[in-house]
Amino acid sequence: MTQGTDADTATDRATAPAPALDTDALLDDPGIRIVVCCGSGGVGKTTTAAALGVRAAERGRKVVVLTIDPARRLAQSMGIDSLDNIPRRVSGIDGESAGELHAMMLDMKRTFDEIVEAHADGERARAILENPFYQSLSAGFAGTQEYMAMEKLGQLRARNAWDLIIVDTPPSRSALDFLDAPKRLGSFLDGKFIKLLMAPAKMGGRAGMKFLNVGMSMMTGTLGKLLGGQFLRDVQTFVAAMDTMFGGFRTRADATYKLLQAPGTAFLVVATPERDALREAAYFVERLAAEEMPLAGLVLNRVHGSDAARLSAELALAAAENLDGVGIVDQTAGKAGLRDPADWSVVSPEAVADPDPSEHEDTEDREPDPEPAPEVATRTETVTEDASVEQLTAGLLRLHAERMQVVAREQRTRDRFTALHPEVAVTQVAALPGDVHDLAGLRAIGDRLATGSTPAGAA
């Protein structure tokens, strides 16, 4: 009896609907200053961030949306020719109590350059910016984009010019890179290789040169062959110039990390109702909990449904197969119903009108009618019309069956996520027939985010 009760409880938990995510309450809360949209690539993070920005601005908040998506879809949808490292005002925000909306796209290298220029004097800054190793590091070092996103977030928050910052996290194969970036760069700056390179600059004078000659002679013997002596000299020059800035990198990274843990921050995990995307979302939910970062909920994008959900996939396929069969003969009306398509061309109007002409006398003397009798023509047209309608109906039934199979698969995937994480609030956005490319489209997405629009037949 106990086992049965436990099983029932597990079933109820697996099928119980997830709590609803109230995005309007989230956007209206003045205590929420940062919203971070995260998730795996291709799930609609950029569109979600932009739609939230438009909705929050039209509800009275002063918003800046920071995107790291190189596709520049955000600029296009907001009517801006291009986005860069400077927040740009978005026009067309409506509403009596509307606030402001600004948008920008992270320029990774420019952000790094700004940090150097802000924390080094003119001569040292110039030496760093012109250093070949710095140019390589700032353009493509693993984790630099994510770290610079954190830096830019910290800069925007410190300016206090906006009361809400919405962040579209970098597109990456792992949604965890955004959280790991500060630690990764900190590990790089604290690594033994960097410390060894920094030692001569710190020791200075003859002692430094002696250490350099002894220490570097061993290192250059191996690394010099692999990387080249000029590369090592560039690294040394870079490290010597950046020495006073390394502590600042770590300090700001730690501060931004704590900012992400603060109550004024809310994470939204974005996913589609597909197995891989929701698996990534579940992993991110668990990671956010482990890092004690505030999760607001899950945004489920591109959810499918049907207005004819009462007709199951099985019944639709059965009906289509019946329509594709040999056909039905309406004995009462005396008309041929749906026939095999191969037979349609064999049946002539004359044959339909007069199945056996030999029964008539003087058939050779009869003058042929200029056209079939009206009732014969009507009957022939009916057969042709009925055939095409039946074919079209069968095709539509198959399309409906495919849609209902997709709806069922998405529902099972959502149920598995909800069973694993019943505490996560969810809002879902019905799949749209086309791409979002303007403010009207972003408003439509915002409406669906706010209402948690469940597509017909998806619940």
From TrEMBL:
Amino acid composition bias (Acidic residues), ranges on this chain: 359-372
Stated name of the protein: Anion-transporting ATPase
Signal sequence interval, chain numbering: none
Region (Disordered): 339-386
Start and end residues of each ArsA/GET3 Anion-transporting ATPase-like domain: 33-304
Transmembrane parts of this sequence: none
Domain of life of the source: Bacteria
GO molecular function: ATP binding; ATP hydrolysis activity
